[in-house]
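Amino acid chain
________________
===
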Amino acid sequence: MNLKTWFVFLMISIVGVLLALANTPTIFEYHLLENQQSEINKSDEAFNKMMDVLTHQRCMNCHPNDNIPKQGNDRRPHYFGMARGEDDKGFQATNCNTCHNSENNTYSGVPGAPHWSLAPASMGWEGLTRSQIAERLVDKNANGQRSFDELLKHMTEDELVLWAWTPGIDPNGQEREVPPVSKEEFKNAVEYWLDNGAVIPTK
């Protein structure tokens, strides 16, 4: 191999190395990508914790898509032919507050919390996927024109929402099942998800 051939080979090698380096992320870029992926993972985890609660029967029973409140772990239609009616609280003769008071009735097993009612029809979640529920949750046309801050306050402070963790006993004297995520974990998950843009996972 003569000098000219060596020179051409050397130049090609240098160009190849430079091109490879140009397409190789820097250490800073690697850290940035790692941090971005970490934030995505945390947001997805928060989303799933939140949805573990919202899709649980303690929440889903009052978010029907057919205007019929559900009850029990098997989500059966409410006794006495109850329906949404006026202002999401049934009809005059079968108003929710006839039986459901501001707290659980430990004698009859009838659950209760302040302003007991169905969620608005626009917030019916029955039959929806987690992503579809999330889309409806942040849609101001569906959620009562709530901003993220107002949504956070509603989901982490409203006594009817938080009733899910103190549902009392059923008419048979059995403790009602609570969501699979603790109340504090739920509050933290909702806050994290909303504070980080309420990103809905694509998978």
Summary: The radius of gyration is 27 Å. Strands lie at 70-71, 76-77. The helical segments are 3-22, 27-54, 57-60, 96-99, 130-138, 148-157, 159-162, 183-195. Residues 47-195 form one domain.
